[in-house]
Structures are given as structure tokens and as C-alpha cells.
Amino acid sequence: MLSRIWMLLAAVLIAAPAAAADQTAGCGGEIPCAVAGGEYRIALPAGWQGGPAVMFLHGYGSSGAKVIANAGLVKAFTARGYAVIAPSGLPWRQGKPADWSVRDGWNTYPRNDLAFLRAVLEDAAANVGVDPDRLLLSGFSRGGSMVWEVACLAPGFAAAYAAVSGGFWLPMTQECKGPVQLLHIHGFADTVVPLEGRAIPGSEAGIVQGDIWQGLQLWRRQNSCPSNAAGHEAADGVWRKRWECRSGGLELILHQGGHGLPKGWSAMALDWFEGLER
User: Fold this and answer.
1) Which candidate, 87, 82, 160, places its Cα nearest to that of 117?
2) How far is CA 49 from CA 24, 69, 233, in A?
3) In the chain, pLDDT over 70 holds for what percent of residues?
4) Per DSSP, what are the bridge partners of residue 139?
5) How far is the C-alpha of 91 from the C-alpha of 85, rounded, in Å?
6) Each residue of 35-91: pLDDT tens digit?
7) pLDDT at position 30, please?
8) 201 Cβ contact list (under 8 Å, min separation 6)
């Protein structure tokens, strides 16, 4: 009987650290983590002992819960040892879809998202050991626009930034606060966020998406990049340009599709991110 008790005790002690990691201090997976101003979801790799993370900002009208429910997206990062942090935006006005505080001349958004994202990162670092110095901030569509905003307003927030299908809106800023490592991924045939920008039909305040090319020109100035790209690649419907910059770095990936996350984008982003550390 005594030996059975010791065996049970040993099993409990061995399982305890894994259980604690799975629960993420009372949240994780489908259970939201609450911080000042809102909430986020988080998914951890198997055997997580702390380490790098991808913070992914959802598109307009979506949520952190929907990001974490996207098993393919999450697995692409956790399989390579990254925690996935998925904050949730807020409705830009009562009864409206969730959004981010992108500067676009429309000032009804109720939260300081930069302060919120900092609170999310601090909470994830304190509770599960996310390394703030190894954070990749990524996002899609309006979330991609928020990636550009954070990179511009707080370049030291993340180690690098990877935006997909979203950039600056008008009135476009003319100067950012420092150089960054930025990867931008966009569909050549995107009609929702066209590369050349567009006015949003029927918008209440004449909201206009900025020209991605003009935004990239700003980043070239900010990162002290030459006008001409240092590297060009084209294969399998994907075109890449890379600039050798004196401060920070800049790379553009165009794919032949429309407004969406292209196949293999997560591997491209992580390969680029990990290449920065070498």
C-alpha cells in the first residue's frame, strides 16, 4: 500500500509542471487572459519552458479567439517553438466590429492599443516566460496596419515586425520614431487593400487606405536604405525584394493571390526572423 502511495505521489509531482504550463496561470487556449483594457489568447508549444513568441493581430471584425481557433496558423508557429499570442481588438464604436487604433482620421476608437499590447506582452512574459526580446509582431489586414503603427510609434516594442496585407492609412505619417526590422507580405491581386491604396466606399468620414509603395518609401528613409533593392528573387508565384539598410532592415514579399494569408507565409516570416538573429 505504501509503495502505491509513493508511486501516485511521484506521478502527481512529475505531471504538475506540465499541467501548470497548460493552464497558463488560469488562462490559455480557449480561456482568455485578462489585462488592463482587454484580453488575449495564448497557445504554447509542447514542452514549453519559455522562449520566443509571435504576437498576431487579427483582421477587422475578428478576434484573438478566432486566431487561436485557427489550428493551422497556430501549429505553424508552435511547431517551431514559438508561443502564439492573440490579443483582441475592440469595437471602434458601440455596436460596430472589432478594430485597432490605426491612425486614419477617424477618432472614435476607445482604447490606447499601444498601452494595451504592452500590457499583454508584460503579462505573457510574467506568467509563461515569453521572452520580450524575441518577439515578432505580426498581423493581417487591419491587424497588419496596426503592425505598421506599432513599428512606427514604438520601434522597440518587438524585435521585428511582419505585416500581411495592411499598411498605413491616410493621413499617412511622414516620420517614425526609429528604425525597425520590417517584413511586408502582400497580394499582387489584392482588391480589399490594394497596393496603390483606395478610398473605402460608403465610409462615414472618407477613410482612405494609404499607398503601400509610399509607405515602403517611408520605411526606406527611416531605415536608411538605398533606393535600389540589394536582392531580388522570383519563384512559384512569389516575388521578393530585400534592401541592405544602415539601420534596421526591410524586405517585401509579393504573391500572386489576393487579400489573404498566402500559403507558406508563416515559414517565410520565421525564416526571415530567425535569419536576423544570426
Assistant:
1) 87
2) 12, 23, 37
3) 90
4) 57, 163
5) 20
6) 999 999 999 999 999 999 999 999 999 999 999 999 999 999 999 999 999 999 999
7) 85
8) none
CB 209, CB 197: distance < 8 Å: yes
| Cell triple for 77 | 508557429
**135 DSSP 8-state letter:** E
Cell of 82: 514559438
Checking phi first, is residue 186 left (phi over 0); if not, alpha (psi -120 to 50) or beta? beta
Sign of the alpha-carbon dihedral angle for 59, 60, 66, 72: negative
Q: Answer yes or no: are the C-beta atoms of 55 and 137 closer than 8 Å.
A: yes
What distance in Å separates the CA atoms of residue 30 and residue 75, rounded to the nearest whole number? Answer: 15
The two most distant CA atoms of the chain are separated, in Å, by 77
CB atoms within 10 A of CB 86: 29
Provide the sign of the torsion angle of the four alpha carbons 52, 156, 125, 165, taken in this order: negative
What is d(CA 126, CA 131) in angstroms, rounded to the nearest whole number?
9
How many residues are listed for the chain in this entry? 278
Task: Using the structure block, give the residue that is written with the C-alpha cell 515602403.
Answer: 216
**Amino acid at site 40:** Y
Buried b (16+ CB within 10 A) or exposed e, 189-227: ebeebbbebeeeeeeeeebbbbbbeebbebbbebbebee
Contact 20, 48 (CB under 8 A): no
What are the chain's domains? 2-277 (3.40.50.1820)
Report pTM: 0.90
Distances (CA, A) of 116 to 17, 97, 122, 146: 29, 18, 10, 12
